Give the backbone structure.
Amino acid sequence: MSQAVDKAQSFKVSVIVPIYNVEEYLAECLDSLLHQTIDSIEVVMVDDGSPDNSAVIAKKYAEKYANFVYYYKENGGLGSARNFGVKQARGEYITFVDSDDIVDDDLYEKMYYRANKDNSDMAICNVLRFNSKMTIPSGLHQYVFKNIENNTHITKNPNLFFDTISCNKLFRRSFFIENGLEFPTGILYEDIPVMIPAHFLANNVSVVETSYYWWRMRDGASKSITQNTGSLKNLNDRLSVLERLEKFYKEHNVPEDIVIQSERKNLIIDLMIFVNACKSVTSEQAYAIFDVISAFIKEHINPKAFDLIPVIFREKYKAVMANDLKRLLDVYEYQLQGYYSAELKENDDRLIMTAPTPLFDKDRY
């Protein structure tokens, strides 16, 4: 059962926490929200029909803390749970936290202050990846936060195309609702077709660099579904959300030079994670991935986008398009070994690296 709430009560920030099979991590997540330094915060816990003991944990927080609210709904997936939470939220701003992640204690105080001061529809923060053994910078957000300035926008800073997760963002609730922003259901990677349109539709994006969202990497057998990058289902879901973005760009007359920046990100991240998975799957699976990616590139990627990615990435795509698994594995081997044995020479204050193998031909993609 869900608890009764006073809909008239308001908060500065509502944190929406979808819950499903996270009994191992949930208390750590909720404790990080309990310790927030902001003076007005609501935690909206949405139990998406979780079959484990997550509900028991969530209900204890709801019983003990007045600003923690528990809701139960039939299972509908992450997107469905987030959409449900948005409808229940009472905050001036809303944000999302995955229930296996944590946040710095002062994160929402800083994000709310920044967004409120700048009158921004959105604020973003930096992200760390972590598990039981290590903490590392988020690869995505190393792109996002490279030379970033406050009061920015995706039309001014193309690195924001890499800012595709929902959980490092604070949204003005009225902005989110009035623009009809809803997460798709029944597919993976549901953040992407919502977050990039949000970047375009926002009046301004405020930036918090000194506090972090901690995005968990699942260990071993508990790996999340989206970490299975050898799956054709995952690949097709990923391409489906990229096609949704393409539709958004056409509907909103986004200029070609900006769309190409989005396609650059597709090549560096969205497609490349599946290309890289080919070294760890069977040859049959690898060729199936080749077929899907090749077809997508031919139909949806402007050749100009290849000029914006590293040469070693272009070589990988050449191998994929040529259906040449051996060549792709050679590129991997070069990437692992070649850089370390390459000859470095200094020329006019520049370092020039001479590759140890004739792997790269002179033709560009």
Remarks:
- Residues 11-225 form a domain with the Spore Coat Polysaccharide Biosynthesis Protein SpsA; Chain A fold (CATH 3.90.550.10).
- The mean pLDDT is 92.
- The chain is about 40% helix and 20% strand.
- The radius of gyration is 22 Å.
